[in-house]
Write a structure and sequence with these properties.
Elements: H1 3-28, H2 32-45, H3 50-62, H4 66-79, H5 84-96, H6 100-113, H7 118-127, H8 131-143, H9 149-177, H10 180-187
Helix pairs in contact: 1-2, 2-3, 3-4, 4-5, 5-6, 6-7, 7-8, 7-9
Length: about 190
């Protein structure tokens, strides 16, 4: 390697870092378009960098451009399939699209890697109206001693929901069993 090659590499590394940190700065001030421009400069210097792809995904997501957000997070995840931060971002995209089924599948993988993220899976089950699965998972989490304040709130919500459903069912059953003629006769 010649001296000039080392200088070019160092110069490119410096340019890459400058654009990358500028992108982070622009994102911090909600200027997502400018952040993306800087990240594209990074990509021109160093293609297929997972950090750049991850940041591109986050910025597109913040612009509500979910197709692009999915594309870039998928590229980043190809390089590191078990990165919890990237997986959580993918869940966030699916949640924004109200695609809870896909979000649940990814959240299950996250829970395998980090069991303390189970409360998010409970929330996704509830959002997807899979209340029994949510309740079963809460029981498992409690057995493992991983209960959180958020989880206690979800448990209370599910319990209240069940009581309301039971009450509604009893009212409907009572309506069905009510004989209108007997009632009229009783008041005549």
């Amino acid at each position: 390697i010649s001296y000039s090659q080392i200088n070019v590499e160092e110069e490119n590394d410096l340019k890459f870092q400058t654009y990358f940190f500028e992108a982070l700065k622009q994102k911090a001030i909600n200027n997502y378009g400018k952040a993306i421009e800087n990240l594209e400069q990074c990509n021109a210097i160093k293609e297929n960098d997972k950090a750049v792809e991850f940041e591109l995904s986050k910025n597109y997501f913040l612009l509500k451009k979910n197709f692009e957000a999915h594309s870039f997070i998928d590229l980043a995840l190809e390089k590191e399939v078990d990165n919890v931060f990237m997986l959580k971002h993918k869940v966030a995209i699916f949640k924004a699209e109200r695609n809870f089924k896909e979000a649940i599948e990814i959240q299950k993988k996250i829970v395998e890697l980090k069991p303390n993220y189970s409360d998010e899976l409970v929330m996704l089950y509830a959002q997807n109206k899979e209340y029994k699965k949510a309740e079963l998972l809460i029981s498992d989490i409690e057995k493992n001693g991983l209960t959180t304040t958020r989880l206690r709130g979800l448990k209370k919500y599910l319990s209240s929901r069940n009581m309301l459903q039971n009450l509604n069912k009893r009212v409907e059953d009572a309506k069905e069993n009510l004989n209108l003629e007997e009632l009229r006769a009783g008041y005549a």
